[in-house]
Amino acid sequence: MMGDGGKKRRGGSHCDGMGQRLSCGGEQGQGLLTAVQQGHLQIATALLDSHPSLLHQTSLYHRHSPLHIAAANARIQILSSLLHRSLPPDLLNRHNQTPLMLAAMHGNIACVQKLLQAGANVLMFDTIYGRTCLHYAAYHGHSSCLQAILSAAQSSPVAASWGFARFVNIRDGKGATPLHLAARRRRSECLHILLDSGALVSASTATYGSPGSTPLHLAAQGGSLDCIRELLAWGADRLQRDASGRIPYMLALKHKHGACASLLDPTSAEPLVWPSPLKFISELNPEAKALLEQALMDANRQREKNILKGSAHSLPSPSHSNEVVEDVSEVSESELCCICFEQVCSIEVQNCGHQMCAQCTLALCCHNKPNPATACLTPPVCPFCRSTITRLVVVKTECHDETDQDGVDINCSKLSKSSRKLRNLNDSGSSSFKGLASVSSLGKLGGRSSGRIAAEWVDKQ
Ligand SMILES: [Zn+2]
Ligand SMILES: [Zn+2]
């Protein structure tokens, strides 16, 4: 097919679907690679059973093994059976690409997982750009593959020999880390996972993009607001210059990404950033972390609106409709955050048990400008008892689910009414209810000695 025009080539060549001809292994060799590419497990099995040497058949130009072709075409059953026939997972094609790289490139998560289970090496470099499978996943924006590779790297010998942090920040032939590629290609989901895994937000490339580009330069060039927002929240510096002395703002202007330029304009308001991301966030449980991240992004979106209001650019609205707007009127007084009296308590400090809203937690833990010298050294303290915050967890209540406000509000007010009634009835009974009732106007303080702490809080006001 494809341009062969019926002309017979030696051994009978064939296109394998990735634009190359298959090498001369006779009719059977051709048949095997075609069967693999098209997902005919039975034919492939029959051919391999009768001619076991076909296992080492490769395509003519790119020298793809059957494993490469199965990985690129998401043929998970055939891939499994090839591995089962003890075909090593790290076969190389002409460009030193492994089957894992091709699976990550095409987003074939099942194949990625299978190859990783079979012990595929995540630390192989191709000879085209000097890239690893992690680069491939980030560049092509396959976040599930990216996550699978990172998880594997954490438990594989790579972590021991190279160190996980070094792997996350691994550079290609032009000095680009996976984070640089994700930023350039507008892959905000991959960008988030990489930052969360310890990718360095301010690393500069050697020659990729403009020499000396940071991920923020590349996101400015790519024009992705989501990537820019994420990078800024992780402390990317708007004033860092590339090798030609340009700040990201200038690149956004040059490529006519107006809204991005407004956010990158060093004279516009600083976004909120995580204080010492790698340290502090690792101490959060995943739920609390997700809640705080959401609050941080919401706060920054609010700032963006104000920034963009002053400029000629407006944000596309659909992606910003998921803001958390708590309907405070429906919530009982006792659930309100007693720092701002506006939001519902959603975060609990451990071990003291004090509660506040996500926004106030952020205000407490975030700085407008990261100060690497101090931020890492002073963990935030509880505003109620001044004890060092070692853990933040999500408050356990059945009544506020931000994703489905309409459905739960009825339950919520019902629940709080009945619990208030219960509290009044039990006034002389349970001591914990008594304590709460005495400070009910201050909100729910929880914890062991809520009465005393509430008094202190009032004194400090
Ligand atoms: Zn609050
Ligand atoms: Zn406390």
From TrEMBL:
Catalytic reaction list: S-ubiquitinyl-[E2 ubiquitin-conjugating enzyme]-L-cysteine + [acceptor protein]-L-lysine = [E2 ubiquitin-conjugating enzyme]-L-cysteine + N(6)-ubiquitinyl-[acceptor protein]-L-lysine
Localization per Swiss-Prot or TrEMBL: Cell membrane
EC nos: 2.3.2.27
Keyword DNA damage applies: no
Class in the EC hierarchy, top level: transferase
Pfam families according to UniProt: Ank, Ank_2, RING_XB3-XBAT31
Positions of the RING-type domain: 337-386
Topology with respect to the bilayer: Peripheral membrane protein
SMART domains reported in the protein's UniProt record: ANK
Signal peptide residues on this chain, from the entry's feature table: none
Cellular component GO terms, alphabetical: plasma membrane
GO MF, any single term: zinc ion binding
UniProt keyword annotations, A-Z: ANK repeat, Metal-binding, Repeat, Transferase, Ubl conjugation pathway, Zinc, Zinc-finger
The ANK repeat ranges on this chain: 62-94, 95-127, 174-206, 211-243
Pathway recorded for this protein: Protein modification; protein ubiquitination
SUPFAM superfamilies xrefs: Ankyrin repeat, RING/U-box
Protein name: RING-type E3 ubiquitin transferase
Lineage summary: Eukaryota, Viridiplantae, Streptophyta, Embryophyta, Tracheophyta
